[in-house]
Design a protein that fits this description.
The protein has 332 residues and is mainly alpha-helical. It has 13 helices and five strands. Helix 9 packs antiparallel against helix 12 (268-294). Bound molecules: tryptophanyl-5'AMP. This is Tryptophan--tRNA ligase.
């Protein structure tokens, strides 16, 4: 079985629809066909200030949502990044393999640090991509299911894997990005040219999976659409409608072409009503399942600990080989 690896940050409150459609949905499908490793990346989260109690709660909440979304501990390995110390260890090696200028060109770092200002930007945020490279290479992953915004980090992963292999001999699998065209980028409902994100300018543009279903319905009904009334997929001319069509198509399993056909002669209202219904059908059981996992934190922690143990077996082997190739003397 080919292997996949991916990660998600623990965020306050809930995952958003972009996280789910861009990544988590694929994680669930890939556990059937791949040897799958997924993690909650708490070490990435601390690149910006975190309240300790909230971070702990959000990490468990993230895991609960992933299980509620359909990850199955019998079919995949889900763990918390900090419970596998090899991530930080290989991360250091990757830092030492990366040029300062090369790291400075990472666009997510440039955007985030520009917003925060130099004195509030941590060195951790700067080295974040190299930790992500380590996350992936430790598992010798063949494919990495992510949204479009992670593509540049995946490119860096390939570059560093090849660089290490070229210098020290074949050590790492060079992974590919697994990015589905239709859901690579889910857009903000109020500004359909911007990606949906927690830092949305207008909270109405962001669908949080754990929001009250009624709030979600409202957000869908007030989504920005385009001039004209025709329902057709056209990112350039009809960004808002196209976004709603991709979301509905993915959640309902009906192709975009079939949807265009179905809504011929109908207005935007009909599309929004149907999408709202499909969303409610999705989030209602999702919320219940998430709560059920949260209600039993001991079981949740035990499943995560078992996941970390499985992950660690793989990660430790890769790290030992890497250290050996580098010429580090092992303790006997
Ligand atoms: P994070 O936590 O920001 O996002 C988790 C996943 O959700 C995807 N995503 C989206 N996809 C489509 N449309 C959107 N609007 C949207 N917003 C978010 C992201 O692309 C991502 O796949 N650096 C990563 C976490 C990470 C990781 C890794 C991923 C750490 N180590 C190793 C893969 C492999 C991040 O911050 O994702």
């Amino acid at each position: 079985r080919p292997r996949v690896l991916s990660g998600i940050q623990p965020t306050a409150g809930s995952f958003h629809l972009g996280n789910y459609l861009g990544a988590v949905r694929q994680w669930v499908a890939l556990q059937e066909t791949h040897d799958a490793f997924y993690m909650v990346v708490d070490l990435h989260a601390i690149t910006v200030p975190q309240d300790p109690a909230e971070l702990r709660a959000n990490t468990r909440l993230a895991a609960a949502q992933l299980f509620a979304a359909g990850l199955d501990p019998e079919r995949c390995t889900l763990f918390v990044q900090s419970q596998v110390p090899e991530h930080a260890q290989l991360g250091w090696v990757m830092n030492c393999l990366t040029g300062f200028g090369e790291a400075s060109r990472m666009t997510q770092f440039k955007d985030k640090s520009a917003k925060q200002g130099n004195d509030r930007t941590t060195v951790g945020l700067f080295t974040y991509p190299m930790l992500m490279v380590a996350d992936i290479l430790l598992y010798q992953a063949d494919q990495v299911p992510v949204g479009e915004d992670q593509r540049q980090h995946l490119e860096l992963t390939r570059t560093l894997a090849e660089r290490f292999n070229g210098t020290y001999g074949e050590t790492f699998t060079v992974p590919g990005a697994y990015i589905l065209k239709e859901t690579a980028k889910i857009y903000d409902l109020q500004d359909p040219t911007a990606k949906m994100s927690k830092s949305a300018a207008n909270p109405k543009g962001l669908i949080n999976l754990l929001d009250e279903p009624r709030a979600t319905v409202k957000k869908i009904k007030s989504a920005v659409t385009d001039t004209g009334s025709e329902i057709r997929f056209d990112r350039a001319e009809k960004a808002g409608v196209s976004n709603l069509l991709s979301i509905l198509s993915t959640l309902s399993g009906v192709t975009i072409a079939e949807l265009e056909e179905k809504y011929t002669g109908k207005g935007y209202g009909a599309l929004k009503t149907d999408l709202a219904e499909v969303m409610v059908d999705f989030v209602t059981p999702f919320r219940e399942r998430t709560q059920a996992y949260l209600d039993d934190p001991e079981t949740l922690d035990a499943i995560l600990a078992a996941g970390a143990e499985k992950a660690r077996a793989v990660a430790a082997e890769t790290l030992a080989q890497t250290y050996d190739r580098l010429g580090l003397v092992p303790a006997k």
